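Margin note from the TA: students keep mixing up input and output lines. Inputs are the sequences; the output is the structure of the whole complex. Example:
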Amino acid sequence: MLNPFRPQSASPRLDSLRRLSLFVSLTPSELRILDSLLHERQYQSDEIIFDAGDEGQAIYIVLDGDVLICRQGDPHGGRIATLTAGTFFGELALLDNAPRMAQARADTACTVAVFFRADFLGLLDTHARIASKIYRELARHVGARMREMAIAAEAFQHL
Amino acid sequence: MSASTSHSVRASAGPVVWIAIIAVTCLLLFFFQKILWLVVPFLLALILYYFLYPPMQWLIHRGVGHDAAASVVTLVFLVLLAAVGIALAPWVTEHISAWHDTVTRYVDGGLKLLDSSLRSLEASWAPLARARLADTVAERIQHGGGNVAENLQPVAMAIAAWTPSLMLAPFLAFFFLKDGSRFKHFLGAAVPNAFFEKSLYLLHEVDQTSRAYFQGLIKLTILDTLTLAIGLWIMGMPGALALGTICAVLAWIPYVGSIAGGLLVVLVAATDFPGDPGMAYWSVALFVFVRLLDDFLYMPLTIGKSLELHPLITVLMIFVGGAVAGIPGLMLVLPVLGVVMVIGETIGVIVTDPRLMARHRQAKVLRRMAASRDL
């Protein structure tokens, strides 16, 4: 039947989402609500996902393949991290629309789920419980990153 | 945050984009007047959608599922509409035969007021008396306007013909509420990767702008209705609430609608108080007062600057809309322009961004290479 708005009955990405640290405290029904807000995109190997300096509007969740985070325009020498399926990047865009710190490009052909800040802010109005759980996990994640950076800076000083 | 981005987006639309926006608006109006039976219910459905959206969100917030919430608010609206219809039915059937006489009486009253005003002008200003202005205008109206009854019949026929089409509005609004978010996904899927994040953000801005505009319009209509009704009631005008409602709805057409509403009230005042021209003048004063309240208090409180259209462009486009598509053009021109403006500016921003275009070209090359790798 021709129905472009037909809801997907059982999204295969639910399993990937369930394993993500950001959504670990969501119940299955809450995950389904979140899943309905995600956009799925496919990128070819070496295709740019976003540039450093772009206004951050969304968080990206890697569902399949690898994503390279690197310095702008320097994918080989400026490699910062390689993200595999089940990880996410661009998470600070959930907090504000500050410019992206680095470039993200597909390291292999990959599939990502995109969660827009506007939809996240909408969740705060309609499903505050889900949004607060995501906020809590995001705060933990950002805190862990800050600790890692502090330890790395300390180690660098001792060298 | 969004305001600054939205501002930077708008500021970058150049004259070419604007000419394209105006040309597309005119083309759409020309096309829309051929399918008015669909465009008008669609527009009403959009207003209804934004009216019913807050209660739907309220239900979702309290744990009701999305589709169930859409069904409940639409059903409650239809039940309320039916209740009002049933309540008004006896009154309508009782008065319907008298409406023809009432309209004729008010039109005659208005013509008499016009005639007496022109004659008093002639009496105080000799050049007008020499030109026999009152007689000339009366003669023109007699020949040009024809019989009121002759003019009323097509209006009644048009209302009867439009009823089934207007019944589409709640049906459409229900699907806007139910499938609106899926429509966003459907549109997003059609956008290439390079433009995806920016397009979706701008679409969100369009949605926010339209929401602010239509919800503001509903609030403004309620405020205008109440102010006019209270003012007319204090003046002792009959049917103050009905008159206030009609004038507030007419004011949806900027400038032109307000003038039409003002004329309507003057017509009623001139007919119901034929010996008291002061009533007509007080009506005009009330309208000017409400207009000032609108501009300086109500509009900033409700609609604000959601469309961000320059007043000169607004007025010019209303006349362009009238010239291209007649009365429907007058009514449709601003919503159509608002939508075309945001879409046009979005496309303008994207195609004039060399980095996004370069990324899109690179993605196309990569896709082509991937497709032909094992050939």
